[in-house]
Amino acid sequence: MTSVQVDEQHGGHSAAVNEPEEGYQRGLGNRQIQMIAIGGAIGTGLFLGAGKAISKAGPSLILAYAIAGLVIFFIMRALGELLMYRPVSGSFSEYAREFLGPFFGFVTGWTYWLFWVVTGITEVTAAAAYVQYWNEDIPQWASALVFTVLLYFVNLISVKLFGELEFWFSMVKVTAIIGMILIGLGVILFGFSDAGDTASFSQLWSHGGFFPKGIGGTLMTLQIVMFAFLAVELVGVTAGEATNPKKTLPQAINTVPWRIALFYLGALIIILSVVSWTVFEPGVSPFVAAFAKIGLPAGAGIVNFVVLTAALSSCNSGMYSTGRMLRDLSLNGQGPKFFNTLSPSGLPLRGTTVSAVFMLFGVFINYQWPGKAFDYVVSFATISGMWAWIMILCSQLVYRRKVNAGLLPRSDFQAPGYPWTSVFALAFIGMVIVLMGIDEDARISLYCAPIWGLIMAVSYFVIGRRNPSAFARKTEVIDATAAEREPADRAPQN
């Protein structure tokens, strides 16, 4: 907590609460924050993963996305409340450290770093595979190398350039989905194209009903659905570099419901009305199937380009977030001091560089051993991403309890329905984790978690022995800072 926030606890002014003391430049404007938020909610999970989910649940997948989308909104409102209390780039890692204890902050920071490294590995490798759609002669490793290096240098120039690139990546995805919805709606209403004779909203219930695989089939798709929403919380990491976080972040978070309604529910309703759910297969993009049914020969190429941008967008986000997470851990004594330094333009150069090297190493692993071992590593992304959500919700519950007790200032952007919305979201995530244990394909994620937890526990013990101050509770640090500053802070009032 900054000295300004300590002052606010003791009756000082709140106007400067948003001023960063981390050294970052506030280079992300409202336009870029909005598109980063949209891009975080739209990824390969929708463009590719939805095919497998449709084959498992049929049209009832729409309901699964609606319920999961509501949970995501609760998570984002909880995050928004914390962000307006203290907008920092460490985001949920910082909040876990302050409200749940140093161990949880330590685990959250490193887990989120690993999440984005693993995600970056998979996405840049996928992007290289998408390039081969147009030219099979281009080696996959060469494309992966070019993409990784290119995005690395983008993230080294300025945070504004990162935001601009993310803006256009997101714009491509948004344009593709809106185009698909408009074309599909035209086919349904006016009957043109090859799909005009069969396209109808009745497709949603005429092939075995809305729940053709039963409620159980719908429930078993929830882990796929939640995976599609991973990275929506990335907007929280931008808090320390947003030009006006008190305005832009609430606006971005409040758009979550309509984004999910349009880009997920709207797209799925149209696609499943144009093409019967029985046509879809795992590994086949529902967008490709819909374009093929409509009779657009360029459809597959269009979707391939969109998915390529989605993969590059995710890798770009990984480059951005990993460097900031490593620096946040370093500043708190929970990571190597090597990552403390910022570049003259206010960028965490060293953290971004090390993360990029790990991503390149992952591409090498995928090139050498593309079998099950790599799939097991990738499966960790789901459970690690949900850990960040759990920490956001738990931190918000503790924060609000302290606010109600008069110990902390109230946020300007309170989550509605406290505490029930956060409790419901936690219970829902718990149910998804149980379902992952039942699903043979997803179970491996739960095997990875205890191993990573053991690594974290041992690391926490070793670092704590060498540097006990690194794991002093955040509240103790706040109290100590307040005690040191109180005479100076109160002097002008006399």
TrEMBL record:
Keyword check for Cell membrane: yes
Membrane-protein topology: Multi-pass membrane protein
Annotated signal peptide: none
Transmembrane segments: 35-54, 60-79, 99-121, 141-162, 174-195, 215-239, 260-280, 286-312, 347-365, 377-399, 420-438, 444-463
Keyword Heme belongs to the record: no
Keyword terms: Amino-acid transport, Cell membrane, Membrane, Transmembrane, Transmembrane helix, Transport
Cell location: Cell membrane
GO cellular component, one term: plasma membrane
GO BP terms, alphabetized: amino acid transport; transmembrane transport
Pfam families per UniProt: AA_permease (PF00324)
Broad class of the protein's primary localization: membrane
Domain of life: Bacteria
Amino acid permease/ SLC12A domain boundaries: 33-467
Family: Belongs to the amino acid-polyamine-organocation (APC) superfamily. Amino acid transporter (AAT) (TC 2.A.3.1) family.
Name of the protein described by the UniProt record: Amino acid permease
Annotated source species: Streptomyces palmae
